[in-house]
Amino acid sequence: MIRDDYYILTDIVPVNSWSNGGYIMDVTVNITVNGIKKTITTNAERSLLDVLREELHLTGTKYGCGEGRCGACTVLMNGKRILSCVTPVVQADKKAITTIEGLAKGDSLHPVQEAFLAEGAMQCGYCTPGMIMTAVALLEKNPNPTDEEITTAMNINMCRCNGYPKILNAVRRAGKK
Ligand code: FES
Ligand code: FES
Fold this sequence. Notes:
Layout (H helix, E strand, L loop, with lengths): L18 E2 L2 E2 L1 E8 L2 E8 L4 H8 L18 E4 L2 E4 L12 E3 L12 H9 L8 H14 L5 H8 L9 H12 L2
Parallel strand pairs: 3-7
Antiparallel strand pairs: 1-2, 3-4, 5-6, 5-7
Helix pairs in contact: 2-5, 3-5
């Protein structure tokens, strides 16, 4: 299920792609990724996740289910979290994307990253980038969430290591900063 605070993925219509006899043409998109402008020419149906990982080598964003069900691929688009595995890259045209690599400022980690480290809120770490990006989006909107608000906001992000209690502690801790 796609939460209503995500972009409504079913409304997505490629803005500058077109097909010709069933063949999807390449398109050129301009995306600002972690503050740096990128121009990418690629298949219009390619996912943003694929472009981030394979073209831009930003492998911090993870591929989990590939169908919008686990949150491992969460990034921010114009400050709002999205599931990049089910977002066609054309939807990112002229948008600002923030990935886990874009959170730290030089040697200073983002407060949410610091909180995850302080609470030891990771085991294998595969879900962690998506968890952190979701927490960043939540705390931008609601700096002091209740536990219920945290769990509601984070419930699309799955942790196969079942590290939820420490993840909750980390988001609580970040919210107090
Ligand atoms: S990889 Fe995107 S939601 Fe699972
Ligand atoms: S820490 Fe392993 S999936 Fe969450």
